[in-house]
């Protein structure tokens, strides 16, 4: 049981770092490409993205927080540690995917518009992504683990 839980936290941490690194690399590449080319800056109704992307960021943060809280609440009702961790992982992944989706949307809109506002939104989304990154202490705190469960973790 202990090896599975150690593998769980390492896997979740590695996955979040990999997803975060992918977002950062994509943003850097898009920024370099965007500065060197003139991409579709004549799209009609481009101003709508100025409202859609920030609203998408706020909506995804609210949605993912709600789902994460629901999953943690469900996990806290369980008594088996492996089942708690499975629900926690689901909540964390949903929160990560919501943040990553916002980042990717922001980067694509930046590539089409060339407006630095969307780079800022992507950076903000990446910040939220890393702020919500799981750690052993966050797992223990979120799941209200007992001392025995923390030792197993």
Question: What does this molecule look like?
Answer:
The protein is mainly alpha-helical. Helix content is 82%, strand content 0%. The chain contains six helices and no strands. It has helices at residues 2-36, 48-76, 81-113, 116-131, 136-142, 147-152. The longest helix has 35 residues, at 2-36. The relative contact order is 0.18.
List the keywords.
single chain; 153 residues; mainly alpha
Structural class comes to mainly alpha
Which oligomeric state applies?
single chain
The percent range for helix content is over 70%
- Content of β-strand: under 5%
Rg measurement, Å: 18 Å
| Count of β-strands | 0
Overall geometric form: elongated
Mean pLDDT: 85
Low-pLDDT regions: none
Termini gap: 9 Å
The ordered string of helix (H) and strand (E) elements is: HHHHHH
Tell me the number of helical segments per DSSP (H or I, 4 or more residues long).
6
Characterize the main sheet: none
